[in-house]
Amino acid sequence: MSKCVYCKQRKGKRPCPALGGLICSQCCGEHRVVRISCPSDCVYLDASSDYQQKRVGERFAQQRKEFYKELFELGGEKAAALFNLIEVVTFSYFHDRRNAQDGEVIASLQSLRRTLSPLHIPAAPPPVFAELLKKEYEAFTKQQGQAQSAQQTLDQQAAAEVLDRALKFVTEFSGPGLQSQRFLTGLIGYIRSHHPEVAEQLAKPHEGGRIILPGQFTPGQVEPVGHSHPGPQHAHHHPHRH
Q1: Segments forming the whole domain that contains residue 18
Q2: CA–CA gap between residue 145 and residue 139 (Å, rounded)
Q3: Which end of the chain is more exposed for a tag (fewer CB within 10 A), N or C?
């Protein structure tokens, strides 16, 4: 009897392309996308289903909260605002693309990160999403510079550090599967469940191609980890609280 590659107890019945062996139907149903980096073409997968998005979205919400604590420690609201921009642009572009893969998000973040490097690193032509992300990032930094003083604007070195950490976060959440959709499923599920008004706004066609950013929905009032005294209170506009 061939045992399930995940639980090692029940009989494996379905071929699991992510784990390279047979998986039992119970483990497949319970852990797909949530804990297994399923490829988008798996016959047992419907990562875009509302149920799957909600489950992965809840897991994403927990890890996202910890990541924002890290960003606030790194550079306060300026650092958090940059990743918030990445989340918004990513949702807007990918929310209705059923076969999209995390790899495109990762490649686009790497492409944007290279533009902030003092060294010119030759690379393959960037994905379409990378061009959009770069355009939105440039508009974001220009708008930030006009609205705030120099002390409040995220400098290029700090932005590069945020992108390095964002790449690590996205890659780790996505998992080792080459065709994983886990990050996109989690992000889209999280925004639809926790911020339905933002999701509705971002799903609309954009006039002139520009994405109109809603108020930030970063976790507010984050106390830096390891500090016994309360950290600075970060006030954010939450489009929808639960």
Answers
A1: 1-31
A2: 10
A3: N
